[in-house]
Amino acid sequence: MSEMSRARTPESGTGAAVVVIGGGVTGLSAAWWLAQSGVDVLVLEKGIVGWEASGRNGGGATHPVSPLFREEQRLWPMMDEMLGYPTEFRPQRIRVALHDEEMEERLRGAAIAVDQGFSFEKLDRKTLRELVPLVDDSAVGAILSHYGGHANPQRTVQAYAWALQDRGGRIQQHTTVHDIELRSGRVVGVQTDRGRFGCDALVLAAGPQTAWLAARMGVDVPVAPARVEMIVTEPLPLMKHGGVDGGGLYGRQTLRGNLAYGGGPHEWLAAQDLRPARPVNSPVLRSLARRLYELFPKAAHVRVIRSWAGIVENTPDGRPILDRLKDPENVVVATMSSVGFGLSPASGRAIAQLVSQGHCDFADLGQLGLARFADLAPDWRTRSGWVAAAPRSDSVASAG
Ligand SMILES: Cc1cc2nc3c(=O)[nH]c(=O)nc-3n(C[C@H](O)[C@H](O)[C@H](O)COP(=O)(O)OP(=O)(O)OC[C@H]3O[C@@H](n4cnc5c(N)ncnc54)[C@H](O)[C@@H]3O)c2cc1C
Predict the structure, then answer these.
(1) Burial of 124 (0-12, 13-18, 19+ CB in 10 A)
(2) pLDDT tens-digit profile of 37-58?
(3) Burial class of 12 by CB neighbour count within 10 A (0 to 12, 13 to 18, 19+)
(4) What mean pLDDT do residues 113-139 have?
(5) Residue of 336, 344, 347 to test ligand 1 pocket, by largest number of atoms within 8 Å of CB
(6) Which of 45, 72, 147, 281 could potentially form a cystine with 23 if both were Cys, beta carbons 3.0 to 4.6 Å apart?
């Protein structure tokens, strides 16, 4: 693929030089980076862009354990300007601890960022209350990270999509890919419910559906889908820091003042049951509301006005898969294991480089390759306890 042509070739026909399956943040960002460097790119999306996890998440952009962390942190503050549209990105994060063990966990997490040159400060109860008026003395402390942040998922999806189109990229919505065409060890096109689209290279960024599509090429991508929920409250006066989390919850205060929070439990899904818009589940919703009240006791009076469910894609080790395959050799597989929103500026850039030059020159993607799962037991989901079942109150989601 490194010798891939930028323009459409006779092989790509009605398609594009690069076809991207999936109009979530991963596929859109990759397509935008490709279009910026002059590549003819087409995104095929079975619904509307951002309709799945990419438009339904907590908006967190703080992933110190990822090899893409530095790039995530470098790019976010520039994204509005680079895209030309607002993402509502706000820097920094306050991580509240409701008990001593949680404080230790916060400090351990921060140490990983410090090792990479980032800084944080410890907040005592009094300073925390000044910065976050919704907490009370039940919080034992917090850290304020001078890295990380959060953005508005819907705005961000929109921004990627518009910016991509501004640079000549194309998006075709309501187009479901149901097969991938191989010839002599290369993908030459995809079959959809709207006909065939040829391509010289393929990016497979279909979230939890990546596993099913990869299997069409004989490639095993271990992903366990799970359903998680979020709640949104009435608006409250804006706090200085919108990115406050704790007590196992992730989320943010929106620029309009609403508290938008999620935090499990995971409800594991069977691979064939990936309907994101299923109604929310009232015990899960109640658990989220209770935990939000524990985090922000001073917000006990506000009402929950909205809730939704989304599907997260989980790999066995919780890390994304970002890999250019050896066979077929013109394919990049990208599925983000519940951390794809925040990483999307960086993952998109990495994917674009994997497509056009065969390697990523700003991060070591070695630990994100599919090869790490070569010895995975076929029953890994069962062994992990990640089988489709009724919700369990003791398993807390890690999305975010
Ligand atoms: C409630 C919730 C909270 C979360 N919180 C955070 C957070 O705070 N921070 C963070 O970084 N991450 C968070 N995540 C995870 C994050 O949202 C995902 O990792 C990320 O959105 C994945 O993006 P994606 O583009 O790879 O996949 P998706 O958003 O799943 O997009 C894949 C797209 O592919 C399309 N598609 C699938 N199959 C086909 C097909 N056959 N043909 C055509 N199109 C197809 C789908 O319709 C979909 O639009 C959260 C997720 C949820 C659900």
Answers:
(1) exposed
(2) 999 999 999 999 999 999 999 9
(3) buried
(4) 95
(5) 336
(6) 45
Q: Is 148 left (phi over 0), alpha (psi -120 to 50) or beta?
A: left
pLDDT one-digit tens code per residue, 197-233: 999 999 999 999 999 999 999 999 999 999 999 999 9
CA 289 to chain centre: 23
Identify the three-state secondary structure at position 56: coil
Residue 186 vs residues 2, 103, 120: alpha-carbon distances, Å: 13, 50, 47
- Indicate which atom in ligand 1 lies nearest the CA of residue 54: 21
Distance 297 CA to ligand 1 centre (A): 31
Domains and CATH numbers, the chain: 16-58+154-223+317-379 (3.50.50.60)
Q: Which residues line the pocket of ligand 1, CB cutoff 6 A? A: 21-27, 44-47, 51-54, 56-60, 176-177, 205-207, 209, 213, 228, 230, 250, 262, 310, 312, 336, 338-342, 399-400
